[in-house]
Amino acid sequence: MEWYEELDFDENPLKNETKFVGNEEALKEAYYSIISGNVLVIESPEGSGKTKILKEVIRKFGGYGRVAYVSAKALDRELNIEHILIKKNGILGMLFKKDPKNMILLLDDVEYLNAKNIERIKYYYDSNHLRAVIITTRSFEKLNLTESMKQRIRKVISLYPVSEFEAVQIFRDKMGETILSDRIIKVVYQLSNKNIQKFLNNCEQVCKAYVGNKNLTEDDVRKIFERGVK
Amino acid sequence: MNTVWFRELGFHNNPFSIKPAAFHDQVIGFDKIVDEISYGILNNKIVLVEGDYGNGKSSILKRLLNDFGGKKQVIYYSCNRMDAHLNVKMLLNGRYGFLGQLFDMKPKDMILLLDEAQELRGKDYERLYSYYQEGYIKSIVLVGKGIKKSEIVSGFKNHTEEVGMHKMNEDLALQVIKRRVGELPLLPDIVVRKIYQRSDNNVRIMLKTCEEVCKKAVETGRKRVTEDFLKQFFQEKDAPVAVDKKVELEKPKPEVKKEEVKVEEKKVAHKTVIIDRRQEKKEEAKVEEKPKAEVKKEEQKKEEHKVEEDKNAKGGPKVYRPDDYKMLKGSAEELLNKQTDEIFGDEQYY
Predict the structure, then answer these.
(1) What is the residue extent of each domain of chain B?
(2) Could you write out the DSSP letters of every residue in A87-130?
(3) What is the CATH T-level fold of the domain B31-164, as seen in this structure?
(4) Do residue B245 and residue A25 have CB atoms under 8 angstroms apart?
(5) Which residues contact B47 (CB under 8 A, 6 or more apart)?
(6) Is the dihedral angle over the CA atoms B21, B24, B28, B33 positive or is it negative?
(7) Which residues of A touch B13 (CB under 8 A)?
(8) Given pLDDT bands bounded at 50, 70 and 90, which one contains residue B343?
(9) Cβ contacts of residue B15 below 8 Å, gap of 6+?
(10) CATH number of the structural domain A24-158
(11) Does the CA dihedral A86-A87-A88-A94 come out positive or negative?
(12) CA dist., res. B246 & res. B240, Å (int)
């Protein structure tokens, strides 16, 4: 029996998609840049919710076959954005070289863009095949953008880490009000270096302990972490 | 996020889009250059156009497309799309579509417009030259920044003609904005000129800053961008970007507060005291949420004050107190007895 079944959940609640919490300003910027047709770069360290923003964007604008989401993690070294865009119209489109219009390109977690791809993005953006582009990256300088591409970028925004209060909110959205006290959640969030992905993984560990012992204290949680470190 | 600033102003799309020739095929301000280029095209020459980023190179090509297009005689190609080298044959075959590729049909006397020509190498020039000599290509326009002239084939050199781009002056930049937004009360001419001066005489950067300024102005509920507002905007922009959430949130508040103070001053002038503190707070909250609705509310308030003044003039204390229900009662009866025209001046409503 899995730990979440004992807590009356059918599936792992920590892996459910829930409401977007924290960084609302950045989400607004993302929505705005798509509506107005701009290039936006989101720069932030790991686990601060870059992908979550893109997912929200897909949820809002997706459904008409207009959003192209490319995760650089899942790609080989060679990425050809042209292929991705042409594929949209299927085989017939590829035969007649029909270019789609008004697409939205989301590039997730790009570490390095080679010059060819930058030029391609530039061309498609200029010729209005791409309506808007959002690029998320860990560091903007490593992207190696050319001067003419930099001119086209409207804004480079960086995300700030989620506050403790918001971390509690995220946890409550997923798990409900009764499990674990706010204080323990805050401790878990501090111990996971303000990284949301790590925080959720650690929460799973703590919840497992909670199933065995309903009266968890802070010290218990700290012990769990010490074990995890070892 | 239901309303975006340009939707509120009545545009469906972003009027300051930085895509080249995004809205109008007619491009302003390059008459001389376009004349020179067209002259070169008609004389079967190779025209080199060089210019800095964001000065309208691609826009010029769009305009040329418009001038010479229509007879299936022009090919526009952006060289940053090519893989290893330029495939001129494919470009020429493309005129007859799918069949052209099958039967290898090639048109004669084509005009080739090549954007981003700095990507071209020596081999590409050789290939272009051979097609040029055979008469398939009538003339070529090469546009880009930093075109490698040393790699151009010597055979071409007798036919080349160089055209330099100059920067736009302020009046033309103003016209560009006028073309896009028309006579917008939000953006006076002086402000546009100032923005253009601040953006290194670069049209693209100007469009970007215009967008930011308008966005901020609409979001803070302004009807007109003043020079002070612009100064403040540039100060914030030049200052190192503060990532803190608090700083970002606190900035817009003081402006709103100033306006509120003004509203309160008006109330004092009317010699009336506001009764219900709770209502006032609610209204303040609303004002903070939707600064746009503020103006209407102010008007409404003025009307209310006038009505109250009428009441005060008909006897009773000058200060309006909620506890004095007698006064309320009496005045209500008086009001009921009179006709509506006497109570409300017609001018307020018509």
Answers:
(1) 31-164, 169-239, 258-349
(2) HTTHHHHHHTTPPPSSEEEEEEEES---HHHHHHHHHHHHTTSE
(3) Rossmann fold (3.40.50)
(4) yes
(5) B36, B37, B40, B41, B139, B140, B141, B142, B160, B161, B162, B163
(6) positive
(7) 36-37
(8) very low
(9) B6, B23, B180, B181
(10) 3.40.50.300
(11) positive
(12) 15
Q: Which residue of B has its CA nearest to A29?
A: B1
pLDDT band at B251 (very low <50, low <70, confident <90, very high): very low
The token pair at B189 is 């001419």
| DSSP string over B221-284 | T-SS--HHHHHHHHHHHHSPPP--HHHHHHTHHHHHHHHHHHHHHHHHHTT-----HHHHHHHH
Q: Which residue of B has its CA nearest to A116?
A: B80
Contacts 24+ apart (CB under 8 A), A139-145: A139/A43, A140/A41, A140/A43, A142/A111, A142/A112, A143/A41, A143/A110, A143/A112, A143/A113, A144/A112, A144/A113, A144/A115, A145/A113, A145/A118
Query: Which residue carries 């401790």 as its tokens?
Result: A187
How many CB pairs below 8 A link A and B?
Answer: 62
Q: Is the pTM of this model over 0.90?
A: no
| pLDDT per position as a tens digit, B63-99 | 888 777 777 788 888 877 777 777 777 778 777 776 7
Distance, in Å, from the CA atom of B36 to the CA atom of A183, rounded to the nearest integer, reads 74
The model's confidence at residue A74, banded by pLDDT at 50, 70 and 90, is low
Cα(B107)–Cα(B14) distance, integer angstroms = 39
- From residue A20, give the alpha-carbon distance in Å to each of A55, A74, A133, A151, A157: 10, 24, 21, 31, 18
Tell me what pLDDT residue B199 has: 81
Residue B46 to residues B39, B127, B221, B304: CA-CA distances in angstroms?
A: 11, 14, 53, 74
Residue A171 has pLDDT above 60, yes or no: yes
Which residues in chain A touch residue B146, judged by CB atoms under 8 angstroms apart? none
Whole-Å CA distances, A12 to A8, A49, A98, A172, A179: 10, 20, 44, 14, 14
A213 pLDDT band, cuts 50/70/90, is: confident
**A 142-171 residues inside an 8 A Cβ radius of B:** 147-148, 151-152, 154, 158, 160
Q: Across residues B135-156, what is the average pLDDT?
A: 81
- Quick one: pLDDT at residue B348? 42
Q: Best interface-test mutation with A: which of B5, B23, B75, B81 has the largest number of A CBs within 10 A?
A: B81
A91 C-beta neighbours (distance < 10 Å), count: 8
Q: Could you read off the pLDDT of A82-134 as tens digits, one per residue?
A: 777 777 777 776 666 666 778 888 888 887 777 778 888 888 888 888 888 99
- The answer for residues whose C-beta is within 8 angstroms of residue A17's C-beta and 6 or more apart is A55
Domain boundaries, chain A: 24-158, 162-229
